[in-house]
User: What shape does this take?
Amino acid sequence: MRAPVPRPRDHTALLVSRVGTEQDVFALRRHAKTISQAVGLDNRDQVRLATALSELGRDLLRPGIMTAAFTLRQQPPALQTVLQWRDDRTPSPDSLGAVTRLLPQTRFENAPSPTPADTGRSGRAHGGRIEISCPIPEAAARSLRAEQVLALLESASPPSAIDDLQAQTRDLIAALQEAHAQRDELERLNEELTETNAGVMALYAELTVEHKDVVERYGQEHELALTLQRTFLPATLPEVEGADLAVRYLPATAMTEIGGDFYEALATPKGLLLAVGDVVGHSLQAATVMGELRHALRAYAAQDHPPHILLQHLDRLLRLHQPGWTATVCIVLVEPGNAGIQVANAGHLPPLLLSPGEAPRFLNEHGSLLGLGLPQPPAVGHRVTPGSRLLMITDGLIETRSSDIQDRLDLLGTTAAGSAEDPEALCTSLVDTFGKDPEDDIIVFAARLHPTPARPTR
Assistant: This one.
């Protein structure tokens, strides 16, 4: 057992917590908001640190334990947060890149070269750490006392899952409002630059510098909004016997409003539940409605309702709490044994079934959009050949202004049938073929189903 590394004298420990579950990631985000507010960071840096730790926590979430430590550095004054682990996990380039853009003073280090006593015969290093440093304003540092921060942490009451969701929603609202303000400022400056003439070159140069700064700040706020949006989606896919799952989520490339696309995968007593949905519209509110629908679906699925009843509950929830909004949702329930599926579809694009030796087949059962108060038809059952693949998408993958949607669906079926059978390779192939510079958010969700062995009888 290794002795702990001594902490420098000018560092004061505030909190050390373990991160091993998705609930721990929520708690880590709450701690970051509480501590960063207590040490005097402004609201933007509070949200950035909380969002960065939420993104990294979800990305690095594994069964093995990871620790998160918050320390207060005296000279120069800064709040340091360190994520540390001792297995072979590494952050994905997308997550680490997004966090580094939000907080440039972010460092990722692999474990140092091990000694033979540490690694035995393997000779390989395991572990790593990510350090994030947030400078504390001088005015706040002069009156800061670690005891005050510790007392605030101890007095905080434990929140519920709904509190966590509402806190994320508030941060998302703040980020989008800031982004909109910067966008309006950018448009104003562009108008001024257009009207500037050669006789006022000094003013032109000044506005150019200001214009560059606004563009950079707007890009940072948009990056923050997209990172926050990803926290509404599942952190991982479940591991289910006989089912291989893969998913791709791509935000639209244009720097516009964020969308309401979502997906879900849940292991339930009735089987594996797969869902893909899309809230109609692109706005902050659309993303908020998306988060509410996804969390409600998880709650209703725990009550073992059949797919079409789940859609009816979501429709009632949408009309009750978000009147005027509509959404499309397709639910596929893979029955135990993986020999059959049940499909219920509320206005969404049909799922594609790819069975070995057969032509690709769209499962065209349809009900009405959610939010209209219309009844949903009962789920339709289909038999599944061993090794079959199931594909669910949102319309951003195939919909274009110049093409007929049926032609694009036919092309999707042909392309998917000719792609590799592995779900990861299938998702990659479809994104490479259809997903270049998307005008809308894209979700590609693929599953390959094998029969599960019969349970021995007692």
In short: Confidence is low (pLDDT under 50) at residues 1-6. The first strand starts at residue 11 and ends at 19. The CA atoms of residues 78 and 135 lie 4 Å apart.
